[in-house]
Amino acid sequence: MASSEEEASTGCPVPVGTDTAPSCPDPDPDPAPAQSDSTEDFEVLEEDEDDLSELPPLEDVGRARAPPPPEPPEDSRCPEQDPGETPEPPQEWLDVLGNGLLKKKTLVPGRGVESRPRKGQEVTVRLRAALEDGSVVEEDPGLTFTLGDCDVLQALDLCVQLLELGETALIVSDAKYCYGSHGRSPDIPPNAALTLEVELLEARDGPDLELLSGKEKVALANRKRERGNFYYQQADYVLAINSYDIALKVIGSSSKVDFSPDEEAELLEVKVKCLNNLAASQLKLDHYEAALKSCNLVLEHQPGNIKALFRKGKVLAQQGEYREAIPILKAALKLEPSNKTIHAELSKLVKKHADQKTVETEMYRKMLGNPSAGSAPVKCKDKLPWSIPWKWLFGATAIALGGVALSVVIAARN
User: Fold this and answer.
1) What's the rounded Cα separation, in Å, for the pair 346 and 37?
2) Which domain does 192 fall in, by range?
3) Cis-peptide, bond into residue 186, ω within 30° of zero
4) What Pfam families does its record include (predicted)?
5) What is the CATH number of the domain that holds 188?
6) How much is the pTM?
């Protein structure tokens, strides 16, 4: 998605589990307050959006159930055992979400259920990811991320919550919880399932936001925003909104540290980017009231922000408020007269507004009982050729009565 909405097929190569999405183009790179690149393509609302209704809520992790263990292959043979040796119990797959698309199996047991990490903690894992044919696409001896923040693939974020400290597990995930229909160029094809080998090395409490320096806060918020950009490019707008919300919470959190003016300006810049991207994601999901609120928050800080003006105009247009939308788009066009996308959107709204006024005018005429302007006058068939219009009769009667009254007054004076 170039600028505000790059083509999804050009999604940036994001490591299977880095806490930062590397250099993903921002779905809404921040322009100067009163001007943006004239070649930028503002996103256009489409009707055929991906159905995100089946995205698993993270809360469903606790409802996992274990299916029957897979049957061994026919040619498998039991290894010879020494007399008196106790056979190990068979390892079972855990159906994490209950739909068969995300399964976990323990390879090396951990330190007990009480050592499992909690949401919000920072965890460090050893990761090895491979395709179904065994091709290794990722290896990381010390991947660190915030659990439950969707900083990594859903498959990893969901399953690490079930790992015990020191446990090594095998995770088999459908593409839905990895890179979906877009894949990751060039090593992960579209709709590719992944097998992850994960060892939980450490779990610790996350950083205290109140004690972060300005630069640390900016860096953390940018990591969350970039993850949101990744989900936006994957058309996972729900998860994109989640990441942008987390970034905004980081920026808006109270602080016990004094920031420099430059750090304050950086935080405001990241905030505006997040709000613009949030509005873009909300528009994709037809959450118009939320998108309007996000646009207004941007405009409170930057009244001349073209993206916020453009999206606010689109939101109002989607709600049928053409009269309010048109001047907002005119303001955006005044800031960037050469932008063809704003021109096209404004022309479309002007036409829709004219059509709306025509319909309203016709409706009012019908309500008042007046014939429409285009209809031919209906002649009364019962009207005789010699009949006199009633308006003339009324006028003549009034004149006659006036004459009689004048005569009476003159006679009375004489």
Assistant:
1) 19
2) 91-206
3) yes
4) FKBP_C (PF00254), TPR_19 (PF14559)
5) 3.10.50.40
6) 0.68
